[in-house]
Amino acid sequence: MNNKEFLSTVMRKGQFPSRVVNQQVAALVSELTAALEDEQTVSISSFGNFEVKKRLERVIVNPTTGQRMLVPPKLVVAFKPSQILKSKI
């Protein structure tokens, strides 16, 4: 499902005008992004948790050349689904 399909589904189920749905989804994404940029954990009940995790520095090997390379540490976003979401899937 892409963004356009998601917005049209929310409009149909909630019977809201497209302008309102677009604003609300944009606000949700904006707040979620801001919280993750501050390295906060975001919990949405019945859905799951978004959190920022640090990936450590590691060595990788290029399979075609066999050359070893060092990958620097970085921050990644992780999602852990709730038990309710797991049971529905």
Describe this structure in words.
- With 89 residues, the protein is of the alpha+beta class.
- The chain folds into 2 domains: 1-38; 39-89, Irregular (HU Protein, Chain A).
- The protein contains 3 helices and 5 strands, in the order ααβββββα.
- The strands form 2 sheets. Strands 1-2-5 form a 3-stranded antiparallel sheet.
Question: TL;DR?
Answer:
This protein is of the alpha+beta class and 89 residues long. It contains 3 helices and 5 strands.
Main attributes of the structure:
5 strands, two-stranded antiparallel sheet, HU Protein, Chain A, elongated, 43% helix, 3-stranded antiparallel beta sheet, 2 domains, 89 residues, single chain, alpha+beta
* Major sheet attributes: 3 strands, antiparallel
Structural class designation? alpha+beta
Mean pLDDT: 92
Q: How many strand units?
A: 5
Distance between the termini: 16 Å
CATH class call of the largest domain: Few Secondary Structures
The strand order across the widest sheet is 1-2-5
How are the SSEs placed, and which strands pair?
Blueprint: H1 3-14, H2 18-37, E1 42-44, E2 48-55, E3 58-61, E4 68-71, E5 74-81, H3 83-88
Antiparallel strand pairs: 1-2, 2-5, 3-4
Helix pairs in contact: 1-2
